[in-house]
Design goal:
This protein is mostly helical and 117 residues long. 92% of the residues lie in helices and 0% in strands.
């Protein structure tokens, strides 16, 4: 029977106690490894959050710049159109000044002639 169970001087309780110590050591080692893995995961999550925040800030800044650029381009385009329209109105008005002056003179002189006895 000794060949089957090892040396006869080994006490089964000692074997159980030894196995229990080995299991406790492995359990402690596994807990430490799990703790380290959790901390690594937390660090990675924090890094990912920070990277995402930076990317979001950069994207927001690019969008702001694009919007400002588009608004500037639209403003310039509308200003150019308004200036062109003002030029056209001035040109038409300048063309009509002689006729307007003639009409004013006729009416003023016509009014004076009607008022004469």
């Amino acid at each position: 029977m000794t060949a089957k169970h090892g040396p006869s001087d080994e006490n089964p309780l000692q074997l159980i106690a030894q196995k229990e110590k080995e299991l406790e050591a492995r359990l402690a080692q596994t807990r430490e490894e799990a703790k380290r893995l959790v901390e690594d995961a937390r660090r990675r999550v924090e890094q990912i959050r920070e990277d995402a925040r930076r990317e979001g800030d950069a994207l927001a800044e690019r969008v702001r710049a694009e919007v400002a650029s588009e608004a500037d381009a639209i403003t310039k385009e509308r200003l150019a159109r308004a200036q062109a329209e003002v030029s056209q109105v001035r040109s038409r008005a300048a063309d009509r000044v002689p006729e307007a002056v003639r009409l004013v003179v006729e009416r003023v002189l016509g009014g004076l002639e009607q008022g004469l006895p």
